[in-house]
């Protein structure tokens, strides 16, 4: 049976998977930013900025309604804000892990008066508290992979996007070739050890979130399958742009405009 969404260890259904993911990210929230920057050698900052630039035309419109879903501690949101004009409509930054979201809210509050800002919203990506066809852009950075049901997530995003609205999903992938083999060793062996060293024990399980990350990437649909899923849920102009030799990549799609 194909993977429908994130499957943390011990999760038996979508509800328990979502609960486990929320608890995991709340637990590592205090050290999450440091962990990200160390594990990626700060390349993650480049990925966020590159993703934001992909949507610079939408972001330049001060009236555009923008959502960063699964925003975590808000680094993707901050990259989006750098391309928003002063006084623009606030970006909505949503996550269901309160520990992560509270740290993002602190970053947003530090914005200078007059600069484009963001509003932190505690919300589930599968049940957004937003009207249908109300958004011009939805972006998710390294969060979509953690949804309990990928198809349901894509359908919910489709619901709240306006006709012509754009979707961007930045997430990890598994590169092929010799690089892929070397990366697999780092991802599955070195990364969990670094994670434990930085964050310490955060769960009763031996590996906790540190082993979850590589497993979640391995379970995530590869680019061709993800693009087919996006097309099947109603998106047009679906594409995948690899970043850093395919270690990560940006999926893009558009809500079709009905003639």
Describe the structure in your own words:
There is one protein chain. With 259 residues, the protein is an alpha/beta fold. The protein has a domain at 14-21 and 42-173 and 222-254: 3-Layer(aba) Sandwich (Rossmann fold). It has ten helices and seven strands. It has helices spanning 14-28, 32-40, 43-54, 56-59, 75-81, 98-109, 150-160, 177-199, 209-219, 223-232, and strands spanning 66-69, 91-95, 118-122, 135-141, 161-172, 236-243, 248-254. It is globular. The termini are far apart. Mean pLDDT is 89; it is low at 203-207.
Defining key terms:
alpha/beta, 7 strands, 259 residues, Rossmann fold, seven-stranded mixed beta sheet
- General shape: globular
Strand content: 15-25%
Poorly predicted segments? 203-207
Q: In DSSP terms, counting alpha (H) and pi (I) runs of 4 or more, how many helices?
A: 10
Count the beta strands.
7
Per CATH, the architecture of the domain at 14-21 and 42-173 and 222-254 is: 3-Layer(aba) Sandwich
CATH superfamily of the domain at 14-21 and 42-173 and 222-254: Vaccinia Virus protein VP39
What's the gyration radius in Å? 17 Å
CATH level-3 fold name of the domain at 14-21 and 42-173 and 222-254: Rossmann fold
Q: What is the strand arrangement across the widest sheet? A: 3-2-1-4-5-7-6
> What kind of sheet is the major sheet?
7 strands, mixed
Mean pLDDT value: 89
Ends apart, CA distance between termini = 37 Å
